[in-house]
Amino acid sequence: MSELIKSYLGDGSRLSVKISYVEQKALEGTAHALYSCKDLINNEPFMVIYGDLAFHPSIISNLISNYDERYLGVILGISVRNVRDFGLMITNGDFLTKIEEKPKIEESGIINGGIYIFKPKIFRFIEETKRSIRGEIELTSSINIAIEKGEKFLVVKSEEDKWVDVGKPWDILDANKLLMDVKVNKKIVNGYVEDGVHINGNVVIEKNAKILSGTYIEGPVWISSGCRVGPNCYIRPYTYLCKNVRVGNACEIKNSIIMEDTHISHLSYIGDSVIGARCNIGAGTIIANLRFDENTIKVTIKGEEIESGKKKLGAFIGDNVKTGINVSINPGVKIGPNCWIAPHTFVYKDVPENSFLIQKFEIELKEK
Fold first, then answer.
1. What's the topology of domain 2-165?
2. Shortest CA distance to 329 belongs to which of 310, 298, 351, 304?
3. Is the dihedral of CA 66, 70, 75, 77 positive or negative?
4. pLDDT tens, residue by residue, 54-88
């Protein structure tokens, strides 16, 4: 999706920064990706941030303030309850002694947070790095080689609640919550709000957004430019509406991200969900976000049921999906892009992209 990223960020002037792009021609690992950028690095320290992270801005300032030119680098360490799916950082005091990728243990510890400050000397150790068993040239391997040759890396620790590794579908909601807590810290209303709208808590309503009478908004909530909400809607905490989203009469949306140009028809409920761009959610569509037995919800990823650890979790719907009236969607379901879901359909398992899902039933007509 490189073209999408480039088209959105451009040259960075809109954000008051200068952006250059380097394409990694083959997916050969994190160290290989960094080495592809070598020509952009002048002979001075630089920061590396993995692209699938969301984090509190204080993490960056904390890393910079702890940088010490006596060491080859500074690495973010995150305190987590379970290190199994991450890179475990073994330390001696505040200094790294080794990174062990995805250890087969389930216990608390400090993991690699994927944000670094390096001296350019790190490129020498990347050049010495051999491919891992996954066939990749990995940055953690380069760091371990540097440590073996006497280099030091300072570990700056942070708590898990300030950092999200967006690797699973539900991590998008956790990232949204973290960033909303940072950005929506006061009431900013630049759009048109009719009489009879009630706003409780911190919200952002951008210019050219329109909120119609009878709508109740409970912050933190972000409503982007071009949105139209109401009348008589209930917009609950941690809802993010991207540009040009339409939410019709008597809808309820809770802790969800609704992407650009999506329309949600009247009498619908969307909870703890992510809905892609240019979708049309038919009237009466209900996304369930709680199991009957109130157990945590599992999501199928690459054919395997993965435990989300969440009791409240809705659906994940790709771009350009249309649902008919009165569609019901089970917790944890994924619907791929460009799908049609026929009216009155009960969606209880994942739907692959470019599908037309129809629930068959018979109607018997008799004389009165």
1. Spore Coat Polysaccharide Biosynthesis Protein SpsA; Chain A (3.90.550)
2. 351
3. negative
4. 999 999 999 999 999 999 999 999 998 888 888 89
